[in-house]
Amino acid sequence: MIDNGKITNAGFLDHVLSNDPVMVKEAADTVNEFTRVKMREDGFARKILPPIPLSNDEIDRSVDTDKPVKIVDKEPGSPAAITVPFATNPIGRYIRAPRYRVMFARMMTPKFNKDVEELRTYHMDVRQVISDNAIKDLLAEEDGKFLYAAVNALGGTPNGTVTETGTVQWKLSADEITRESLVDSLKIMPSTPNRLETATALVNNITIKDVLKFRRDEIGGDLAQDMFLKGFTEQMLLGVKFIVTIKQDLVKNDNIFYFAEPKFLGKFFILEDTTMHMKREAFMIEFFAYECLGAAIGNVAGVARQTFNNGSSL
Amino acid sequence: MAKPAQMFDSELNGTKGLYPAMPWVVDKAVDLDSTIMDSPTNLAKVKAGRVVTIDPTSKRFILGLGTITTTKHPMPFVLFQNGSDFDVVGDDGNMVGAAPQGVLRGRPMGIATCTSAEVETTEYVAATYVPGEMLISDSDGKWTKYVSGASTICGVVSDGPNSDGTVNSPHDSSKKLLRLFLAYVPINA
Predict the structure, then answer these.
(1) Nearest-CA neighbor of B40 among B119, B104, B133, B115?
(2) Domains held by chain A: number
(3) Interchain CB contact of B186 with A (< 8 Å)
(4) Which of A:52-81 have CB within 8 Å of B?
(5) Could you tell me which chain A residue has the CA closest to the CA of B99?
C-alpha cells in the first residue's frame, strides 16, 4: 500500500496553497515519497536492472569535462587451461580487462503552473494527479531509453550478428508463440560464448495473451486452470520471471525481450532520485519532477530478443 | 608534453541576461540530425557556442543557418553543450542518446537567439570585429560577419577590447572570445 500518511489529501491542498514555504516543502516531500515508491513498482527498467544510488565520491572524473561518469570494470576473458607434459612452462598472458562507461543525464517533466485561487476549485486528489503525471512521464522516458539502449546493444536489426559475441541475439521467425517456440527462444542467450541464462523476460500485455492459450497438455493442470480463471500475473515461467508491460509502443506485439541477471547485464545508477520541485510565489504555484540517472548495458551477451510471427507489428 | 583537452576549449558564456535554466531563457533540447550523428567529422563540429537550426524535414538540429527562403528563416540556436559531452551522446548501450530502432542520437540544448542576452564564445571565424557588426553563421555553425544577401542575422557584436574586437578567455590566456548580443533578424535579398 502506498500512502505515507503524513499529510491527508485534504491537508495536502492546504499545504500547497499555504503562504508558508515550510508547508509547501512538506507537501513536496509527501509527493516525493509517494512518487519514488511508485517509480520502483511500476518501471520495468528498474525491475530488470535495479538502480544503485551513487554518492559523490563514487563518481569518476575526466580532464576535459565536468560531466559525471562512472567507469565499471568488466570481467577479463580467460584463456583455457591446457594439459602439458612435465617440465613445461605456462604460457604468459598479461592481464588487461575491458571497462565501460555509464553516462548520466537528467530526466524531467514539464513545469506545471497554476493560480492558487483556481486550484481551490478542484475536488480531485491533487497529490495523486501531480505524482501520477510525474510518474507516467518519467517512467515513459526511463523505460523507453532503457529499451532503446538494449536494442542498440543488439545492433538495431533482427537476425544480424552481434559483433561482440558473433551470434544472432535478436531472432525473427515465422513461428507463433507455442510452448516449443517459447522454449526455443530461451536458447538464444545461452548460445552466446558467455553462456548466460535468461533471468527476466519482458513482454507486452497483448503478446502474453498467447501464453494464456497454452492448454493443460502444454503447461500442466493447475497453471492452465489458474491462467484461464485469473489471467496472467507476473510470475515465473520456464525458470524465467516474466514482466508484463502495457507500454505497447515500446515493447511491440509478438516480441519478447530477454535479460540476464543484473550482475551480468550492466549498471543502473541514480545520482539524484526522483524529486518533485514545488514552489509558491505570490499567487502562482509551480511544480515539476526531475531525476538524474544513468544506465548502460555493459554486457551485450546479457540481452536477447525473439520476434514471433515474422514481426508483423514491428 | 601534449596538452590535454579542457572543458573550456569551446565555450558559451553568458555575460548578461543568460543564466542557464532561468525561466526567461528560451532553450530547446533537440536531437542531432543523422547528417551529424553519422559523421564523426560533423559530430566533432558540435561545440558549445556554435549555431544550429532545426531542419524542417528531420525536425532535428543541423549546423548553421539551414535553408533560407523568402518565407522560411529557421530560428538559430546557440549550443550550450559539446557533442562529446556525456549528457549529450553516450557510448553504445547507454541510455544517454539511445533512440528508437537502436540508433544513437545526441541531444544537446541550444538557446534561441531571440533570447535577450549578451554572450561570449570561442566559436567564431577569425577576423577583426567592431561593435555593431551584424553576425551570421557559416555552415559549420561558426559565427562570422554578415556581408550581403538573404540570411538570418543571429547576433550583433557588442564590444571587445582587443585589437581584433575580441576579449581574452578567462580560462585560457591563449584563447579569445567574441562577445555579442543574440538577435534574430531575417533578411530577404
Answers:
(1) B104
(2) 2
(3) no
(4) 63-69
(5) A148
